[in-house]
Design goal:
This protein has about 250 residues and is of the alpha+beta class. It has helices at about 25-35, 45-55, 65-75, 80-90, 95-100, 100-110, 120-125, 130-135, 135-155, 160-175, 230-245, and strands at about 20-25, 60, 185-195, 200-210, 215-220, 250.
Length: about 250
């Protein structure tokens, strides 16, 4: 399904801790290639696995509200979104989308007005597009459209979805960040889970960039429409835990 002569299979990555600090880059390069060709509705599994590895604990992305908000925003001007998806499908060089039967089929279903039900998945598809689709102008224009409308919603004086709209705007902003990189992983609404399945801490948006010189950078952002000391303290603790997990542990 992933193109001529290709077959889907399970990929298992095991890291041997032979050096201190651990080499992080080689594993990330393998996972970047995996992320390009995975089923698009499972693309978040790669980012969840990476963050679980970093934290040494199970991490899940609880992004349904974010995807729903993105879908709501996209449906406000669905003709523009459909035109953008068709433009992406018209690029033969974008093999991660157009040479990948699963991704191409999803794009076709979302861009064709004859299919109404599949459009319900447009939010997740846009935020989980292959990285190369995000990098090119057609993909960036699509996401800029989403970000602009999300900021409008977040700036309204009243509205039940101001918080999710702000998170959506920040998520798209991080996807489109200008930093030059060979691949970008974005983690949305990540939640660390204890052994008894209780949430330990949460992060709104995390961006992990693989730089062209072999280095990598990690950026984490917490969002808030209405700040409070309690929430600020909680966010600081979550960011500190992430910083502590990577400090002096990993190299390139």
């Amino acid at each position: 399904m992933a193109g001529p002569g290709r077959r889907y299979g399970d990929v298992y990555c095991h890291q041997h801790r032979l050096a201190k600090p651990e080499k992080f880059g080689p594993m990330l390069n393998v996972l970047a290639k995996t992320s390009n060709w995975i089923h698009r509705n499972q693309a978040g599994e790669v980012e969840s696995a990476i963050l679980s590895w970093i934290m040494g604990a199970k991490v899940e992305q609880r992004s349904n509200l974010l995807f729903t908000t993105c879908q709501t925003v996209a449906l406000e001007d669905i003709d523009v979104i459909r035109a953008g998806l068709k433009a992406l499908r018209a690029r033969p060089s974008l093999v991660e989308l157009n040479g990948h039967n699963d991704a191409a089929l999803r794009a076709d279903l979302l861009s064709d007005a004859a299919f109404e039900q599949p459009i319900q998945n447009v939010g997740e598809f846009l935020l989980r597009m292959p990285w190369k689709a995000v990098k090119i102008s057609d993909g960036r224009d699509l996401l800029r459209q989403i970000a602009a409308k999300a900021l409008e919603r977040a700036g309204e004086k009243k509205g039940v979805d101001r918080g999710p709209a702000l998170e959506l705007a920040v998520a798209v902003d991080q996807l489109l960040a200008d930093d030059d990189c060979s691949h970008r992983f974005c983690v949305f609404n990540a939640t660390e889970i204890s052994d008894d399945r209780h949430p330990v801490r949460e992060w709104d948006v995390i961006r992990l960039d693989l730089l062209r010189d072999g280095r990598w950078t990690l950026t984490a952002i917490e969002c808030s429409v209405n700040r409070s000391k309690k929430k600020d303290d909680k966010d600081v603790l979550a960011l500190q835990a992430l910083q502590d997990a990577v400090r002096n542990r990993y190299s390139v």
